[in-house]
Amino acid sequence: ETGVTQSPTHLIKTRGQQVTLRCSSQSGHNTVSWYQQALGQGPQFIFQYYREEENGRGNFPPRFSGLQFPNYSSELNVNALELDDSALYLCASSLGRPPVYEQYFGPGTRLTVT
Amino acid sequence: QQQVKQSPQSLIVQKGGIPIINCAYENTAFDYFPWYQQFPGKGPALLIAIRPDVSEKKEGRFTISFNKSAKQFSLHIMDSQPGDSATYFCAASEPSGSRLTFGEGTQLTVNP
Over chain B, what is the mean pLDDT? Predict the structure, then answer.
């Protein structure tokens, strides 16, 4: 059984650019959540997907968007990058349909915006 | 609005000591309280979790104590080891189960 994987590991972008981060869920897990973790802080919930539809969203602007694919993999897209978007982006997968409680995190993608 | 407050921010103990990390929450709708462990450069790993109908849960060297009336819960690490040195996060979730609300984290150092 493989765990949650994310790509790329690190990414450097310039303010105003767009970025796509990818996540492969743990085997059999069909719910995926995305979190943003700023340096020295706890993760902040961005949104959750189940059956390719958004199921809950945190306090993030519309330029943060996501997709979930039939194989349960997922993407996080961020448009018009700002310096404050620099953070570790974490994907977490869960087994079953929402509400889901046990969330298993991937290693994250470190995004730096210059 | 920070709904889960965690303390202390950092903690140093000697090997074999029992570090205690505390969290307090405001939202009485929370019904699931996990603890995560995070090493540098890694994602958070689920350690142990508790529901509010239970006052204590133990898994290996990790114990959660839960006080529903005080809206507080804590993590105790028995016989701590240098390998336990990491950042620990408490979290809470509502019945919708959509999101985890995390505390600010506690950086634990266990000296040999």
Answer: 94
Helices (H) and strands (E) in chain B, counts: 0, 11
Residues of B in contact with A104 (CB under 8 A): 46
Q: Which residues of B59-75 are buried (b: 16+ CB within 10 A; e: fewer)?
A: eeebbbbbeeeebebbb
The residues, any chain, with a CB within 8 Å of residue B95's CB and separated by 6 or more, are A99, B29, B31
Q: How many CB atoms lie within 10 A of CB B52?
A: 16
First CA to last CA distance, chain A: 37
Determine whether the interchain pair A103/B89 forms a contact, defined as Cβ–Cβ distance below 8 Å: no
Measured CA to CA, the distance from residue B38 to residue B77 in angstroms comes to 15
A29-86 residue pLDDT tens? 889 999 999 999 999 999 999 989 999 999 999 999 999 999 889 999 999 999 999 9
For the stretch B54-57, contacts whose Cβ atoms lie closer than 8 Å and that sit 24 or more positions apart, written own/partner, are none
Which B positions 73-112 lie with beta carbon below 8 A of chain A?
Answer: 89, 91, 93, 95-105
3-state SS string over B56-105?
Answer: EEEECCEEEEEECCCCEEEEEECCCCHHHCEEEEEEEECCCCCCEEECCC
Contacts of B40 (CB under 8 A, 6+ apart): none
Strand partners, B108: B11, B86
Tell me the sheet residues that pair with A68. Answer: A74
Buried b / exposed e across B79-110, counting CB within 10 Å, b at 16+? ebeeebbbbbbbbbbbeebbbbbbbbbbebeb
